[in-house]
Amino acid sequence: MKNRSLVLALLLATAAPLFAQIQLSDQARVSLMTAAPGTLMYNLFGHSALRVYDPVLGLDRCYNYGTFNFEDPYFLLNFCRGRLRYYLDIEPYRYFEYGNLLEERLMKEQVLNLTAQQRQFLFDLLEVNALEENKYYLYDFFYDNCATRIRDVVEKAHLYQITFDTTFLPLGATMRDLLHPYLTNYPWTRFGIDLALGQPADRVALGRDYMFLPDYMHDMFARARVADTIPLVAEERQIPSWSLPPKPAPQRGFFGNPLWVMCLIAAVGIASMFSRRAEQVFDVVFWLALGLAGLILFLLWFATDHTTTKNNWNLLWALPTHLLFFWRTKRTELTETYFTVVGAIALVTLLMWGFIPQDLPETALPIVVLIVVKGLMRRYRRED
């Protein structure tokens, strides 16, 4: 064990950057900060940062890999194309704490079990990563985000000697499954995410994959061991030390439940079939909306760098080709053949719903049923 510690010390000493300007004192500590989920889209799943505190040097700062620039002139375009650059930001710890407490988000601080050399090496790595030429990276929601970047740099500081305990993780959970508990109070957001995420989101998560979510990374750090014997976390505390009052669940009426809304649309669609004029108006809006949805899903698959929106089987019922036919109220052989094929595809999709290798949103089922009814019955209904 002595030889192993000596080798580790030598490797850390030689690997540390020679240009480091700040030498931490013996009282310094590095902590993993885990913030509870917020209420905004970008913080619904929580947040992670690394805190470096040195009372001797008067140093107290957070390293945050989850920063992006809203003022970037191409922000929206890059976000949609999956080319949004995130970066490592350094901010005073008091700003980090104040921002989370202002949003009533509890924080957990886990002080990492580091030797003086490991602590200095980790600090140097963070400083190097924060340089202008190094701090930017292409964000990937599942595999390269504010949490996984911290995991990777902490592992590097320990020379990859960390062993993570995965025995407590739910067996067989997919990447999509891991998101759902955070979306319980946001059904429309869940519906939108489930529509946009393709088959890659239904891959069964491996042990390391869970750490894309800050809560799971916190739990796995708490159980991790260095060199199979030393706990990775030396101590933990909650900030604030008392529990914040639970936030009341959002009050949702009828329109707050997407399943009810989809059932209503399906009912209106079927009722409209008893009036030719009403059916024409409904069909224009209905097929236009489906076509636009299909176009978005198609572009997310083929025109972006998002890895999780590929191979999206929702395109079986939300076809972008509807945009070529939604306005054609006059029946022709072409339009009748098109909608018959659309209805047949939707019927096969409905029958194979549980066998398709993607977890399709059940909320969409009433719409798919409506597509079957309207598509297959259209040819055989007399025109007024």
Q: What do you see in this structure?
A:
The chain has 384 residues and is α+β, with helices and mostly antiparallel strands. It is elongated, with a radius of gyration of 26 Å. A seven-stranded antiparallel sheet has the order 6-4-3-2-1-5-10. Strands 7-8-9 form a three-stranded antiparallel sheet. The chain has two domains: 2-169 and 207-239, Alpha-Beta Complex (endopeptidase fold (from Nostoc punctiforme)), CATH 3.90.1720; 254-380, no CATH class. It contains twelve helices and ten strands. The longest helix has 27 residues, at 276-302. β2 and β3 (59-67) form a beta hairpin. α9 packs across α10, α9 runs parallel beside α12 (365-377) and α11 (333-351) runs antiparallel to α12 (365-377).
Number of strands: 10
CATH topology of the largest domain: endopeptidase fold (from Nostoc punctiforme)
- Tell me the helix content: 40-55%
Top-tier CATH class of the largest domain: Alpha Beta
Write a compact overview of the structure shown:
This protein has two domains: 2-169 and 207-239, Alpha-Beta Complex (endopeptidase fold (from Nostoc punctiforme)); 254-380, no CATH class.
